Amino acid sequence: MDSPRIHSFFFFFFFFCLVRSYASADLCANPPHSSSGARDLSIFHANSKCSTFSPPTSLPIDQFQTVLSSAAKDPSRLIYLSSLVAGTKPTTVPVASGQQFMQTNNYVLRAKLGTPGQLLFLALDTGSDAAWVPCAGCSSCPAASASFSPPSSSTYKTVDCASGWCPQFKGPACAAAAQAGSCGYNVSYGGNSFFSATLSQDTLRLAHDMVPDYVFGCVNSVTGGNSMPKQGLLGLGRGSSSLMAQSLSLYQGVFSYCLPSFKSYYFSGSLRLGSVGQPKIIRTTPLLLNPHRPSLYYVNLTAVSIGRGIGRVTVPVPPGSFDFDPQTGAGTVVDSGTVITRFVGPAYMAIRDEFRRQVSSSGNYSSLGAFDTCFATTGDLPVTPAVTLHLTGLDLTLPVENTLIHSSSTPLACLAMAAAPDNVNAVVNVIANYQQQNYRVLLDAANSKVGFARELCN
Ligand SMILES: *[C@@H]1O[C@H](CO)[C@@H](O)[C@H](O)[C@H]1NC(C)=O
Ligand SMILES: *[C@@H]1O[C@H](CO)[C@@H](O)[C@H](O)[C@H]1NC(C)=O
Ligand SMILES: *[C@@H]1O[C@H](CO)[C@@H](O)[C@H](O)[C@H]1NC(C)=O
Description:
By secondary structure, this protein is an alpha+beta fold. The protein has helices spanning 3-24, 63-71, 74-83, 165-168, 172-176, 243-246, 248-251, 345-358, 400-403, 433-436, and strands at residues 39-45, 107-113, 118-125, 132-134, 157-158, 184-188, 194-206, 209-223, 232-235, 254-258, 269-273, 283-286, 298-299, 301-306, 313-314, 331-334, 341-343, 366-368, 371-376, 387-391, 394-397, 404-407, 412-415, 417-419, 428-431, 439-444, 449-454. The chain starts with a helix and ends with a strand. Mean pLDDT is 81; it is low at 13-24, 53-57 and 94-104. Residues 171-173, 184-186, 196 line the site of one 2-acetamido-2-deoxy-beta-D-glucopyranose. One of its GO terms (biological process) is proteolysis.
């Protein structure tokens, strides 16, 4: 063989190997163990092709429309969050009525349950404690992309009604009497729809870790018109039934997440469980425990300011708008299930007015869905004033891409924040997904702190 032929042979061989390695790489798989020991799982948008086995038929291409339609469900999310009052059963789980996916189901991860592990998709939710999965044999469940089969797991067991776990899931059957048998419960999820589940235990496998005897609900049937979400739910709240409480020896009650940007539907962010590998350089604010709503991650928001440098104005909000109140549950929470940041009505109005005052647009603002401060971005680009959230010990000046949402079809930008609905029973402000893009958010209940570090999440 002469040398040009050898060259071309090696060239094609190399090319073949390259193509093969791309084809075999599972872009949705969890990342390998990192050298730092960080325990990372990939997280995806619910509509991403990684969240289901088969790609959805219509992919959300337009970021603006996606955020617009997701944010429309925020009010029901806020009602859910405010219903999480200690000692009472939330009226409904955060499932948007008539939707294919849950209110909380913005981000999903891949986990395995049972022995051998069965692959499942779980929506991660910092506002829920309990976990549940659709179980095999549930004929009324939607054609799930993946369901869990208890008989195929050698480590599966049901939780007895007499178990201390049962009341934590507030199963009405168990509350009724000291019944024998397994703990069954019904969860309403909007309108007259509810699902029935059996409280169960099995080994939860998260990337390279195992949480033995993890307690979750196995959904057996669905009643009512509203379609149940296809994915299961992984509760990452602060309550006693959450993953964090059930894995204290493994993860010490510490985790962080970096949410993929809304612009990048095909990319993954990460959930990092445990204290190992968390960012060393991170600005933090105290994490507050509100006994009225013990599942939620509260921080002390003290003020909001608009603008930069000497032009920065601390927005005069009505006194008490942001106050943390253990009696009523009022305050500010960091949430992974609300799309855009929400402030109590009068505070939002004041923030918006100051923002509008500083945007050098023509003074014409329009409303679009949840957004009431949209302005044209043709011609001279208006100045975008910086929005800073002042938390105890930490000023969070949001990057422009976390403040505004752009529509390219009609050249338009909107302030990506809104007022909390009026019908929420105690005021709650929410620092939401859109404002958390490209931040690593550290929720460290062990050391009572919440950290924010800029990071490219995708
Ligand atoms: C759940 O609802 C079904 C149908 O209404 C009922 O038969 C069952 O007893 C309920 N279970 C519990 C635990 O409340
Ligand atoms: C929140 O910050 C304000 C202002 O610094 C302070 O007065 C208040 O005590 C703080 N609240 C909590 C619960 O830490
Ligand atoms: C506001 O918009 C209208 C219609 O688009 C336009 O005619 C008007 O000049 C605008 N006002 C200002 C102050 O630019």
